[in-house]
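Thread: Newbie trying to understand structure tokens

Hi all, I'm a second-year student working on a class project, and my supervisor (Dr. K.) asked me to get a predicted structure for one chain before our next meeting. I've only ever worked with sequences, so writing a 3D structure as a token string is new to me. If someone could post the tokens and maybe explain what I'm looking at, I'd be very grateful. Here's the chain:
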Amino acid sequence: MLNVTAPDTATLVPSPDVEQAEAAIVEHYPRLVRLAYLVLPPALGRNRRVLTAHSLVQRALPRGRRDAAAAVRGGVPGQRGGEGEAGYAYVRLRVLRAALEAGVPLTFRALPRRAQLPPLLPQVWGLRLFPRAGGAEELALDQWLATLDGAGRAACVLRALERLPEPEVLRVLDEAGVADPAAAVAESGDPAHDSLFASPEFDPCVLQARPTDLLRRRRLVRAGLAAGAALAVCGALLALPGGGWGADGAAAPPYSRNAAAEQALDPGKLLRAAPALWRTSSRTGFSAWPARGDRADDTGLLRRALAVWARPGASVVVSATPGTPSGPPMGPAQLLFAGAVDQAVVVLLYDGLRVVRYAEPLAGTTGAALDFARTDGASADTATALVLSRVDGNVRYLTAPWVTGAALRDLLKPGEAAVALKPAPDGVTPPVPSPAPAGSCTGWNALALTGDGATRLITDLGELTPARLTSGAPGAERDVTEAAELGDWSRIACLLPSVRSHGVRTVNAWTYAKQPLPEGDGTATWLCTRAETWQGSADRVQAQFLAPGAPLAAQAARSEGSPACGPREPRVLAGVLWKSRAGQWYVLAAGSAQFASLSVSGGGVSGSANGNRLAVKAPAGAQVDLSGKLTDGTKAGALR
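---
Reply by user tm_fold:
Sure, no problem. This is what the structure looks like when written as tokens:
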């Protein structure tokens, strides 16, 4: 496999999600706790500093994905490195801010922040904990740190413990909310003593234990028991009828009593589009679909579907495509379909952001399924069908009201004509075989849907929403109808399982280069496929190499979240290690038309070429670095 590397450029690392932040905390926990311990004011005492340092690091975990994804003061700073470094930088900034807040004196004019109060967790009852004692140098350093303010201690720690250069220290202090970072750095002292910061004297993870004041503790226990008895008596009196707080205090009525919630759970409030609305609507998406199905007026069924959506029980199997929230509706949803399909009763609902499928057994009263799929921004091109059911390796679709014809096509057999299908009057198709049902790739079925002046090709990728297949350069994608485009798809369709169940909206195949092979072995084709997701932040890109005579394409490179092959970066560069018919190995590379020259080095291989194609002899198994220069003179790396 060819190992290609992009030029070493600084990139803006996005804010990490909650899993990345948790991994950073677990991996660097001792380092983060030491940082918090050193920045906290020594006036707290060593026992409280230890517990507070552990508490601040454990609370640095974001509350959820939205909290982690929201950048603090513009986001995690741009830096070199991957997701692990971004996660560590994010939690380090949160720990640093909390430690600085803990040193702010309490006042009566403002409510205290959580970091200023004694930690709720962790707690150790009956013991006092403090780090192991160091020598005279550590004692002198601790006394000197006590003379600094929080910003000065933070500057010392970032320089000595984190090994950050001065410009980086200034930037981190500024993002942490320090009013004068330059003054804090100037106050941070002599770097000659930086090695002492790694001493066990300042390690709150290696601790000694001593008992607390035993007599005082006994008195507090007795006082606590007396106070608990008094509170129990007062609570019983307040709970008596006619006065006092109820079980929920001053809270509003339960959620199901809320007016908006009642409307969301009322089947009589469901929205239903007019049957011909799609003909005049300015937006041709799921909002223009009429309510269809033989159970569209079954109030009991619709009530169960809405109730399960709002409160799925333990027996309900819930699934959601990546990036799709699975919470209850915010108000009355729109009914798309309700009817019997195969051995189940299916209800499809739409709330403007998501399509939700509820399914229950046709016979029996146990078990139900609830599926969520994000569909915001859907148009006539991406709202052509929804998956109703998958049974015994077959799938049924509900087609859009503007679909006038449907046909089944095997992508691996581009020369064969598509088999016409006859959907029912309510738009439900006959059962058709799923793509590669047994995990093999002897066939890959797609559905050609005709309507609204176009024929669109869709395929099932394990989602509630099928993916649309297109061809063409970024920004000029078109429906797959030409024989050459079908021929290209026949050789790359078996790579589609790599994007299955990732919330894919469209998959585009772009032939970006043709390359004559060395030694007269024919002409190879380079393609780039881009699977765009509904959430828009996890698009998957693959570069494929089509050797002449080979039945299937070979994957040359892949990336997730890359803008390559898309409208934001309509270019790509990739390479492979290829063996000629005579047995000679070559490094082959090709870029899109924006590349003016290519070069390869490493692994005993060195070479360059003008233009967007390159072929250099190489030893078997060579690992090389590939790069290119664009027509405007800037450097660009290979897809990876």
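A couple of things are worth pointing out once you decode it. The radius of gyration is 32 Å. The first helix runs from residue 18 to 27. Feel free to ask follow-ups in this thread.
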